[in-house]
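RECORD TYPE: inverse folding
INPUT: structure tokens
STRUCTURE:
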């Protein structure tokens, strides 16, 4: 039950769908492959790449593979702890932490991974090949090199002070406006002429049928005679002299 619950919580982004064809005796045979990034937007993400004869099947298989390969990465608030670089093939990706409110400055392939991890402020730069497959793998290679301050302190056996990234995050958070409280004000409603229009009909005119005009105008059709007034009750009639 816990595995199904985790799958429902995970989100996925399709980076790309690729089509290949092979020529056989009966014609061309097509196959599709999908590159998908899966994450929980809380520090965990994974990549899946699968093939199938149909696009939905390839995407579904890639999502399952991405869930199996999910791993956790350290974060510093809404950004990464420090600048890092990753390389795969002819592609190189550089990730730089940013102050709150900067946003994610990245391309489609790199942005998909950062969004699935939960990074909201980060600067990126890609060098070399712009192949999405290589960029995704280079980004994961860069994220694998991230280390928190506690991990560095335990490895080196020293005590580190406040980092520059932590100072920038604190200053940026102090400069951001406070969250607004209360309900949103409703927009004004135009009620001028409601007593004359009497309804929400469209533009009316002669020959457009009953009930099609503004204000209940039926386009020139004769109106039905009004019903006679109800007789007075016995209590209201004058007493006979």
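DESIGNED SEQUENCE:
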């Amino acid at each position: 039950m816990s595995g199904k619950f985790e799958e429902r919580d995970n989100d996925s982004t399709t980076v790309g769908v690729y089509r290949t064809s092979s020529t056989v005796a009966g014609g061309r045979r097509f196959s599709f492959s999908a590159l998908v990034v899966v994450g929980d937007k809380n520090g965990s993400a994974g990549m899946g790449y699968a093939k199938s004869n149909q696009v939905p099947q390839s995407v579904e298989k890639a999502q399952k593979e991405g869930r199996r390969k999910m791993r956790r990465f350290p974060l510093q608030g809404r950004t990464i702890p420090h600048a890092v670089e990753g390389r795969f093939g002819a592609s190189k990706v550089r990730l730089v932490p940013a102050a709150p409110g900067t946003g994610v400055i990245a391309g489609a392939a790199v942005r998909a991974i950062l969004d699935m991890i939960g990074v909201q402020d980060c600067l990126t730069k890609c060098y070399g090949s712009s192949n999405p497959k290589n960029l995704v793998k280079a980004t994961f290679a860069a994220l694998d090199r991230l280390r928190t301050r506690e991990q560095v302190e335990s490895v080196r056996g020293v005590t580190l002070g406040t980092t520059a990234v932590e100072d920038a995050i604190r200053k940026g958070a102090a400069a951001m406006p406070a969250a607004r409280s209360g309900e949103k004000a409703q927009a004004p409603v135009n009620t001028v002429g409601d007593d004359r229009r009497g309804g929400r009909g469209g533009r009316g005119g002669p020959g457009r049928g009953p009930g099609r005009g503004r204000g209940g105008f039926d386009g020139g059709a004769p109106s039905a005679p009004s019903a006679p007034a109800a007789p007075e009750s016995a209590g209201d009639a004058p007493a006979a002299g």
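NOTES: The chain has two domains: 1-72, 74-174.
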